[in-house]
Amino acid sequence: MVLRVLCGESSSSLLQARVSIFQGKETFVDAHFTKDHPTAAEQQAVDSVLGVPHSGWKGGPRRPDRDGHSAVNGHRLGADRHLLLPVLHAIQARMGWITPAALNYACQRLNVPPAEAFGVASFYGLFSVTPRPPCVLHVCDDIACMTRGVEDLCRSVESQLGPAGSPSLNGKATWLRSPCLGLCERAPAALMSRAGEKPAEKVVAPASPQSLLSKLESFANATIEEPPDRFEASASAPQASQNGHSRLVLLRRVGRMDPASLDDYRAYGGYEALRRALNFGGSWVVREVLNSRLVGRGGAAFPTGKKWDPANQPRYLVCNADESEPGTFKDRVVMEADPYSLIEAITIAGTALGCERGYIYLRGEYPLAGERLSHAIRVARERGYLGTNILGRGVDFDIEMRRGAGAYICGEETALFNSIEGLRGEPRSKPPFPTQVGLFGKPTVVNNVETLVNVLLIVQEGGESYAAMGTLGSTGPKLFCLSGHVARPGVYEVPFGTTLRELIEMGGGVAGSGQLKAVLLGGAAGSFVSPAELDTPLTFEGTRAVGASLGSGVVMLFDDSVDLRKILFRIAAFFRDESCGQCVPCRLGTVRQEELLQRLNHRKPMGSVEAELGLLKEVGQVMRDASICGLGQTASSAIESALRRWQLF
Amino acid sequence: MDHEKGNVTHRLQAVNPLVPVPRGPVPVIPPASPRRKVRVTVDGREISVPEGTTLLDATRAAGIDTPTLCYLESLTPVNVCRICVVEVEGSRTLVPACSRKAEDGMVVKTDSERVRLSRRLILEFLASSVDVSTSPQVRAYMDRYEVHPERFGPSQAPSDGRDQARAGVHITSDGSQAAAVAQPVKADNELYLRDYGKCILCYKCVEACGPDAQNTFAIAVAGRGFDARISTEYAVPLPDSACVYCGNCIGVCPTGALMFVSEHDLRKAGTWDESRQTSTETICPYCGVGCTLTLHIQDEKIVKVDSPIENGVTHGNLCVKGRFGWQFVQVREKTQSGGDAS
């Protein structure tokens, strides 16, 4: 058989596979694509991002006048790969899933091998690589929503729509359970998405079992013109609508101004910081940031001044807006209510560091923030605050926004780079660090949304006076995401040093039964503290002293009716779902961790409970020690902190 | 110099008058500038290695056998298996020896309790989720690190739904069985099989298929987390994919997940016996590149073909002809003995 193939004596399937590389392809590229031809809709979806193909080299029809005597090859041929994720978004939004023909056409246009593009498409939770109804209801069943009756909600949805993932409403819709949607202040939350000619996304929060289904039905049928999502300060940032508003600095515009209006933003002091920064120059800005002792607000608490080293000649400034830590929604509130402040902050940082371009990597589940930011970027560009010759100062800088597609891991900075570059969102090995080798292999500065917004304050007040706020080790104001069993959940701005007790009082005290059982600090990757630790100051050093961490600023309350074990099971399931699968300790450690907890849950320990807890500790240790990135290294942290404080099994 | 050149010319002429005589001086490769040395302490022993050396090479230079699974000299390190982790003083986490460069003054421990625990659990994770029966390498490491995969319970039965798994979704079990990647063997062509129940996801085949050797990109990692898997686009069979059957993925697979049909058939029949096999090096007869082939022979029959990784021509890589086009040898043998040529 083999001999015949090699000599070309038979038309076996193997021979056809070899020959098909050269036959029936409308492309010059020496790569193997599939035989699927796109429909008009599929082609439109891809072309909506890439434009109409102008040559046979880029997946279009052959044009002898243009293509006959030219060649596109080498680096240029694959240079558009970074557009793969936007193209996949367009296909998903138009077709409802990533169809083989649309993917193949996208591959021809971008010169990406289909196997690799499939690897990317199948990596993200919001994409489907199998047929799916056009309308999808994502019901958040994560820990914050668990405190607000999400189980009843899911039961009601399941009884009316069938099991998660099955088609319903005449094949028009389906529902799925989702990890934290970042709407914890309005829990329980759901997100609806509709694919088709008029794709749409809509948040339902709080979602009630009674009304959710009728909302889904009208959304799926697109019968009525849906009012666009709006930001409600009273629901998301209670301080902003209270008397103490005047003391706020980071949130001072929230709920006051029209988030779409640049004039409004300027009336509230917007773009003064950029003028100041351009007047004093980049090295002044960098020095002030260093003097401010600002540390990153994304969770890792790395000193921002250390990242901001012009000696590294950073090429890109990346704003990490992939806020996916369960219980975190502060960045969303800033982006929805005050989008220009982020655009201004990125412009200041980018021009001060001499970066060529800024990127915002926004979480895929934040449709309103995405709309607000792209509007703000467009208006800022029109009005001369972005693009070439900013404010007539001869400085060029522009910002591009990219949307994630449902992957917690893409909040890890190097996974985020890979995601932008059109690769799977797998973290890279460090060193080299992003400041040396970052986005597209160039030195890159990555900062969280809240971190960047703090830069506006630093530029306006100066680093020294900024550092006077807060404590010695944690300077400035901090946004906390208060959720769970608290009377007034939402984003709260306090200076560092406020105690946990004071913060809970600001939020109106413990809700639910009124008896506090536990507080989760820092989200799923953070740690639990007990009511005995309420006088812990909310600073990086203060939480470290009690063996906890501030993380991204999550403060989630659980009353004494909560079965903490269920919260731990959900956290374990979360990490298993969100591990990228690259390294063994995390890919399998998160699975074994969940299995161990479930054995204890079902009272089926292998050997004794003590032996199982010992094994759980070992699993946690190897994840912490040997995983590539922070996800695996912290996947056992909250669980271990709870087991240290309470005897749960 | 002149004297040497004369010698060379003379020798060439003496050997073969058809070889053209080089005109002018023979080019000499300039000596490489000496690389700076860095001093590293490995398990208490101070050694000196050239700058840019990985910790893996440094530990090997110190005579320590650091285990590796996803590492191969001819491929870019992906450092995903994490079995090569070592402890570096001052580092919060363990570091992968295969890709971390040695730095001056580094103090490295390769056999501390932390390192042994990580290596043991990594092997337990793998052995409790993957069939490692055809990987002598993994089994040897399991003995070395006293591995007990049964601590995580009996492994799950095979499932054929892995290709359909959706990112970010799983069914929570009661934990009584250890989740495993066991699944039916993919037999979609006549040259090699893909038994992904034996796959430890070391990424080697993807690298060999892609930029590190073949540049065919027929396979990639798809899915996420525990459901991450090696796959063609939409899991189409290999004949519908970009695969060119070079078999370089088989050459780098450390677990036998990718296997010649000839080897698989013998193993199935129970007649595969490496102790009865001999290997013979020869040159591929097909084209002018002259790839070195290693023929593995059992009972006077070729059972598989590969190429030595250290070979300067192939670096272990072959094409479909060298890798699979050897049946004619057997056919000729049959003709001579039985006269029944087909």
Overall CATH class of the largest domain in chain A: Alpha Beta
Shape of chain A: globular
The number of helical segments of chain B is: 9
Report how far apart the termini of chain A are: 62 Å
The overall pLDDT of chain A, averaged over residues, is: 92
Helix tally of chain A equals 28
Report the uncertain regions of chain B. Answer: 1-13, 338-342
- Class by SSE composition of chain A: alpha/beta
Proportion of residues in helical segments of chain B = 10-25%
Main sheet of chain B, how many strands, which sense, barrel? 5 strands, mixed
Structural shape of chain B: globular
Question: How many strands of chain A?
Answer: 13
* Oligomeric description of these chains: heterodimer
**Amount of beta strand of chain A:** 5-15%
**Unreliable runs of chain A:** 1-29
Q: What does this protein structure show overall?
A:
The complex is a heterodimer of chains A (649) and B (342). With 649 residues, chain A is α/β, with parallel strands linked by helices. Chain A has 5 domains: 120 residues, no CATH class; 87 residues, 3-Layer(aba) Sandwich (Glutaredoxin); 230 residues, NADH-ubiquinone oxidoreductase 51kDa subunit (Rossmann fold, 3-Layer(aba) Sandwich), CATH 3.40.50; 83 residues, Ubiquitin-like (UB roll); 82 residues, NADH-ubiquinone oxidoreductase 51kDa subunit, iron-sulphur binding domain (de novo design (two linked rop proteins)), CATH 1.20.1440.230. Helix content of chain A is 41%, strand content 11%. In chain A, the strands form 3 sheets. A 5-stranded mixed beta sheet of chain A has the order 10-9-13-11-12, with helices on both faces. Chain A has a 4-stranded mixed beta sheet with strand order 2-1-3-4, covered by helices on one side. Chain A has a 4-stranded parallel beta sheet with strand order 7-6-5-8, with helices on both faces. In chain A, strand 9 and strand 10 form a beta hairpin. The radius of gyration of chain A is 26 Å and the shape is globular. Chain B is α+β, with helices and mostly antiparallel strands. Chain B has a domain of 154 residues: Alpha-Beta Plaits. Helices cover 25% and strands 15% of the residues of chain B. Chain B contains 9 helices and 12 strands. In chain B, strands 2-1-5-3-4 form a 5-stranded mixed beta sheet, sandwiched between helices. In chain B, strand 10 and strand 11 form a beta hairpin. Chain B is globular, with a radius of gyration of 24 Å. The N terminus and C terminus of chain B are likely disordered. Chains A and B meet through helix 1, helix 2, helix 6, helix 7 and helix 24 of A and helix 3, strand 7, helix 8 and helix 9 of B.
